[in-house]
Amino acid sequence: MIKKIKYLIIIQFILIGCKTDDYTANSPNIIIIYTDDLGYGDVSAYGKGTLNTPNIDKLANEGIRFNNGYATSATCTPSRYGLLTGNYPWRKEGLKISTGGSLVIDTTEMTIPKLLKIKGYHTGIIGKWHLGLGLGDGSEGTGMIDYNSNIYPGPNQVGFDFSHIMADTQDRVPTVYIENGNVLNLDPNDPIEVNFFHQGINDDYGLPTGLKNPELTTMKWHHGHNGSIINGVPRIGFMRGGKSALWSDIDMADYFLKEATEYIKRNKNNPFFLFYSLQQPHVPRTPHPRFEGKSGMGPRGDVIVEADWCIGELYKTLDNEGLLDNTLIIFSSDNGPVLNDGYYDDAVEKLGDHTPSGGLRGGKYSLFEAGTKVPFISYWRGKINPGVSNELISQVDLLNSISSIIGSEFKSNDGIDLSDLLLRNNGKGRDHLVVEASTRTAFRKGDWVIIPPYDAPALNKNVNIELGNSNNFQLYNLEDDPSQKNNLAKIEKEKLKEIYNEFLKIRGDNFSNIESLILE
Ligand code: NG6
Ligand code: CA
């Protein structure tokens, strides 16, 4: 009898052993660490700026650092859509930055977490969501969310088993955390009301706002951001109620980090996917006091130092839990950098020699390179050899690459399986790429970039960023001219035509032929 039990135990061990092997080979844990508005030059491993990010650098230096990695869009909501669905956001009509809007991913669409869930992963998102909540036509305020009951649909309906999020951004109401559709710590006797329309006299609920009561703010607004004041910070939109549920801005980084590490610990015995979506360095920049002054660049630099620290802590958790050898980490940012994005916070004044854009032209909101070219790193201890890649890769490729890594057949339309590049620094990257800013698009083909004419402002004066719009065609060669100073459209006419025709084919018939007439 005892012999028989022993025999069974041995067999069980063998089975568990096989399972672990199998798990390591085919189902690595996958973590996407996603920062908000972090520029190409903000990560010191890229050797551009003067800020120090030792923990992100470790991933970059011991993993693969992509020098030509792109977000799909120069703003948040479209970028996150492209990342999670593997499809270009500009194909979705009118997809723009969401402000209290409804869920922008159709619940029938494939997403990275859905794909992983099908393969037996536990999937979680912690941090900034900004892909809308509830039903509506997707435009401002149409989520029409009742924050006092379960909010539906949201991340849990597009593939996440677990979600612990802020709805949009740190500068938008409601300033509360939402777990699996429920606002946390909400007192039913103090319900939350939210509104984004300022059409009538009572639309701000008669509560203090940045507009009426600037003396009550501890952070001053520069443009926009003059709605409800919460924790001294005037926000976009108006809210009242929900006092016990309000977040603490200075504790947000620690808060999400704790949630993320707890998620990892809870799921360490099964394959998991974690989308760790940090709020930094988006406005309002509210570093915890222990990071204040640490960068010497004011709050923007300080929150990047804070985010870097969080990433180091997350890494330590993975190490302590023995998970680093079977965890693929992908690090990137949702769009390029901006300094003054609506508050007076010394981002411009204290910048010194640092170059958030890494010398690229433009920034957040821009069709120029700095809008979408972002830090992009893949790391897997013991599996990925350190390296640098100049191949073209986009976040839109992550779904198909992950699909191939976990042995799934599914492929999205716009993504490319670049798993060989991500894991082995092997093979070619993309041949071409479409990037987007405020629904306008530009096209990269090899080292060439074409920006078609747009009747739109050349400069966003509020944020002081060149948007890339011009009445004329723009054509740049990034090999000789990475900062897009020399428009070759008038010189390289044949090249322009050739690339533009290809661009039009890819964009499909969503667009008029006005531009092709201009070209004639
Ligand atoms: C803009 C906000 C900006 C920022 C952005 C979203 C104003 C004037 N500007 O509308 O501060 O919140 O939306 O940024 O309100 S993103 O990174 O999430 O796309
Ligand atoms: Ca962003």
How would you characterize the overall build of this protein?
By secondary structure, the protein is an alpha/beta fold. The chain folds into three domains: 2-185 and 254-424, 3-Layer(aba) Sandwich (Alkaline Phosphatase, subunit A); 193-240, no CATH class; 432-513, 2-Layer Sandwich (Arylsulfatase, C-terminal domain). It has helices at 2-26, 54-62, 76-85, 112-118, 252-266, 298-320, 369-372, 398-405, 419-424, 493-507, 514-519; strands spanning 29-35, 64-70, 122-128, 162-166, 177-179, 182-183, 193-195, 229-230, 233-234, 238-240, 272-277, 327-333, 376-379, 387-394, 432-437, 440-445, 448-451, 459-460, 465-466, 474-477. It has a ten-stranded mixed beta sheet, with helices on both faces. The chain has a four-stranded antiparallel beta sheet with strand order 15-16-17-20, with helices on one face. A two-stranded antiparallel sheet has the order 7-10. Helix 5 (252-266) packs parallel to helix 6 (298-320). The radius of gyration is 23 Å and the shape is globular. 2-acetamido-2-deoxy-6-O-sulfo-beta-D-galactopyranose binds next to loops.
